[in-house]
Write a structure and sequence with these properties.
The chain is about 40% helix and about 15% strand. With about 450 residues, it is α/β, with parallel strands linked by helices. It folds into two domains: about 240 residues, Rossmann fold, CATH 3.40.50.2000; about 170 residues, Rossmann fold (3-Layer(aba) Sandwich), CATH 3.40.50.
Length: about 450
């Protein structure tokens, strides 16, 4: 047990941490920084940065936002499926690639039931032993996807009684898009997940629909489950006054995967342009990576090509540190999300903080709708048909053109409940008490 009043030591386990550029990295960065500001000694356990540089791309500016008091431990992660040096391929892969993939998947899941990521368990457990020996750990927070990160927490809990938190950035047994269960009762995944959740000090989820599903599925852990929404790190700028002699500019920021309804956005935008004079010269800027590995599938590529003809432009990825400037140059923001009642997106909170009009281009049943309900400048599409999207775009255009300061101030006031500090403060306070530490610094 930690000494009363001592600085507690947090081990934060996150496969994706700066300079990783994936969407989930912002939650990881914000959480680690929040604990450091609260007076914890924080060690982040993550993978070697070289993998991000070689395989998926990096956002180096994010590293500058890591609290300098945080110690980062980077350990190996093997990703054979992305190996493009043919000289390093085993003979089976070269001669029978399908057989190799099948064998690789089976091998990956022997230490832990997760394709690709299972072998990381060995590296994690060795690292946690070393870190705990050097500086005893008082609490582990393991953020999932990959879910193998929970093995670090379970290892220290079983051997040394260290309490832990499971932070679900993405669900494991729940498909958040379809709502179906992915791993049945009694499966290996179900066994691991039940063990992790029922032994946790706390379990965090990003929205209410997801936490309710897990409370029903794992009732023994229900009382320790909490919603910790993604939130925003700092109020985004947003433009204070727009020039009335310039065309309206609509902005989307986020990963553009195959589940994001860009074709529906383009069709609705083209329809709205035909109907609304305010949109004749207006433009849409799309910022973000194409997919999680930098490539667009054919349908998305076709939509982007068509969009360019009607003022919808793909502008490429943008550093997190420059996003505020994009908002400052925007008149309205587009929330374009894949369908699913459990889907929120971290971007919605950042959008709210701007006070700008937000046009939702997603299924009305998405969890994001619950977050936005009550926001004074929210214009949701009734459905994803061209007419449904066009109607929302026209309404958003009129709000953007009027640029009503009272509505904008009301929007920013509404967003305050979703700041990272507001989301994390109650949980960090409770965990500090749980580990027996009493001194608190100001976040």
């Amino acid at each position: 047990m930690p000494l009363k009043g001592a600085r507690p030591h947090l081990l934060y386990v996150a496969w994706g941490f700066p300079p990783c550029r994936s969407g989930g990295v912002y939650r990881a960065l914000a959480t680690a920084n929040a604990f450091a500001r609260d007076g914890w000694d924080v060690t982040v356990l993550t993978i070697e940065r070289d993998l991000w540089e070689r395989r998926t791309g990096v956002d180096p500016a994010l590293e500058e936002r890591v609290d300098p008091r945080i110690r980062i431990e980077r350990i190996p992660f093997d990703w054979p499926v992305l190996e493009d040096d043919l000289s390093r391929w085993p003979a089976l892969r070269a001669l029978a690639p399908r057989a190799w993939v099948k064998a690789r998947n089976l091998l990956d899941q022997r230490p832990f039931p997760e394709k690709v990521y299972g072998p990381w368990r060995r590296h994690l457990e060795r690292a946690t032993e070393r870190i705990h020996a050097e500086h005893p750990v008082d609490l582990v927070v393991a953020t999932t996807n990959p879910h193998v990160s929970i093995t670090a927490a379970l290892h220290l809990a079983q051997r040394y009684g260290v309490p832990y938190v499971v932070d679900y950035r993405d669900a494991w047994s729940l498909d958040v898009f379809s709502g179906r269960r992915l791993h049945p009762e009694g499966s290996t995944v179900n066994t691991w997940e039940r063990r992790a959740l029922e032994g946790a000090q706390e379990v965090w989820f990003v929205n209410e629909p997801i936490v309710q599903w897990h409370r029903t599925t794992y009732p023994a852990a229900a009382a320790r489950m909490h919603v910790v929404a993604n939130g925003y790190d700092e109020p985004a700028a947003g433009s204070e006054a727009r020039r009335t002699d310039t065309p309206l500019r609509f902005t989307y920021v986020g990963t553009i995967s195959g589940k994001v309804p860009i074709p529906e956005l383009v069709a609705g935008w083209a329809r709205a342009r035909e109907q609304e004079p305010l949109l004749v010269d207006a433009e849409v800027d799309l910022f973000g990576y194409l997919g999680y590995y930098g490539a667009a599938h054919p349908e998305l590529a076709d939509a982007l090509s068509t969009g360019a003809e009607v003022g919808v432009h793909y502008r490429g990825p943008v550093s997190k540190t420059l996003v505020s400037e994009l908002y400052a140059a925007s008149d309205a923001l587009l929330l374009v999300l894949g369908t699913g009642r459990y889907v929120t997106s971290g971007k919605v909170f950042e959008y709210l903080a701007t006070g700008l009009p937000i046009i939702s281009v997603h299924d009305p049943g998405n969890a994001a709708s619950e977050v936005l309900k009550g926001y004074p400048l929210w214009f949701p599409a009734s459905d994803l048909s061209p007419d449904g999207v066009a109607a929302a775009l026209r309404a958003g255009a009129h709000a953007a053109a009027s640029h009503e300061p009272t509505a904008k101030a009301a929007g920013r006031a509404f967003a305050e409940r979703y700041s990272r500090e507001h989301q994390l403060r109650p949980r960090i306070t409770a965990l500090r008490a749980a580990v027996g530490a009493t001194s608190v610094e100001t976040m």
